[in-house]
Design a protein that fits this description.
Layout: E1 5-11, H1 14-26, E2 32-37, H2 43-57, E3 63-67, H3 73-84, E4 92-96, H4 100-109, H5 115-129, H6 133-140
Parallel strand pairs: 1-2, 1-3, 3-4
Helix pairs in contact: 1-4, 2-3, 4-5
Length: 142
């Protein structure tokens, strides 16, 4: 199974920092790239960075684009790419609001599941990682 390409995109350095944190926890793995949009970044250049990553890593593989914020510049560029995508293109899935648990799940599961199952697992991991710790402690201390 050819693992998908993971592109993590964010405003500033959040994407590269998240990937480095994942490497510290899980170890290094291939087919992952961070793309940051700085304050003066142009959206057309940002879009080209995503397209170049797909081309450089193999445009024949499914691509998962994790972006930091739904409705932000990164997700809007992703939505633009989805609109341009043809049915003959390889799958592109976009998830907004990534967290470290999602990146670790990708690293752990990227070779074990088909693309749609992998995306489902990543979404589930991200949701499970978000919780009210105070409420959790109250339940645990009963």
């Amino acid at each position: 199974m050819n693992p998908p390409l993971l592109i993590v995109a964010s405003h500033g350095n959040m994407a590269s920092s998240a990937i480095e944190s994942t490497f510290q926890i899980f170890g290094r793995f291939d087919n992952v790239i961070a793309i940051g949009l700085d304050q003066n970044g142009r959206l057309d250049e940002f879009e080209l960075s995503i397209l170049d990553a797909r081309k450089n890593f193999g445009s024949d593989r499914p691509t998962l684009l994790l972006v930091d914020l739904f409705g932000g510049s990164c997700s809007n560029v992703g939505a633009k790419l989805l609109k341009k995508q043809k049915e003959t293109d390889f799958p592109l899935r976009i998830i907004a609001g990534f967290n470290l648990a999602m990146l670790i799940e990708f690293a752990f599961s990227r070779d074990k599941y088909d693309f749609d199952q992998l995306v489902d697992r990543i979404l589930e991991a991200g949701k499970k990682a978000c919780l009210d710790v105070n409420a959790k402690f109250k339940v645990m201390s009963r």
